[in-house]
Input
Amino acid sequence: MRLWFTILVLALSFYAFFDCARTPQEEVRRFPKWAWLLLIFIFSSLGAISWLVFGRPKRNPGPGRGGRGKIIPPDDDPDFLRKL
Output
């Protein structure tokens, strides 16, 4: 049981660290990117949870995920024109 908890904490820390490292600087919230990386590295589980809750950028829903899609008029829609 203790081994599983340790593996879970390490996996969460690695995921948060690499997720933060791949995120562009201008999308990071609250702190600079280097501060988040340092926070995750020093305080592994607390820093990882903080990154996932407060620092990670908000994901914009795409047109298939409940967001409003852009309406394309028929004369600009290549699929519609192909069917003619």
